[in-house]
Design brief:
It comes from Leptospira haakeii. Pfam families: DUF309 (PF03745). About 65% of the residues lie in helices and about 5% in strands. By secondary structure, the protein is mainly alpha-helical.
């Protein structure tokens, strides 16, 4: 797949350095893409960062990668089976994230909201081949927090 120069530039910057040095940048750029409905591109940016991560940070990014692909298969390139499958996988990641003990109390609440959204999304799949697309489009998308560090306990992001 070919990306526009903006995305290529982001991917190059995310590739550089270790996980700690690129996380904020990757999150910020991914969030901008999410807000623009560029779900596939968000998935690509987060995938580059996800490969460097461990623990709760890895689960968070992986959950958002799969949620982004699910949303892409709803809003950009409709694919019922693919969207449902990615939403299920995303929910698994956010459920696992809840069990890590790495989230702050605020992060626990925000994570629960994402899980709630995924449950609502999945409730609108009538089968592997059928969905209520109009109801899905009416769901409020989960919020992607600007300051991702607020979601985690202070031990997850080392001080600079």
């Amino acid at each position: 797949m070919e990306f526009d120069p903006e995305i290529l530039s982001i991917l190059e910057k995310v590739k550089q350095g270790d996980a700690d040095s690129s996380f904020d940048y990757a999150w910020g750029e991914g969030r901008k893409l999410y807000l623009k409905g560029r779900y596939f591109e968000l998935h690509e940016v987060f995938e580059f960062q996800w490969k460097k991560e461990t623990g709760g940070r890895r689960l968070l990014l992986h959950g958002w990668i799969q949620l982004a692909i699910s949303l892409n298969k709803v809003f950009v390139k409709p694919n019922i089976r693919g969207s449902k499958m990615q939403a299920e996988k995303s929910r698994e990641k956010f459920l696992k994230l809840a069990e890590t003990g790495e989230l702050s109390s605020f992060g626990v609440e925000e994570n629960a909201l994402i899980i709630y959204y995924l449950n609502e999304l999945l409730n609108n799949f009538e089968s592997e081949e059928s969905w209520d697309l109009e109801r899905i489009k009416q769901l409020s998308l989960p919020e992607m927090k600007e300051n991702v560090k607020e979601l985690f306990s202070s031990s997850v992001f080392p001080p600079k």
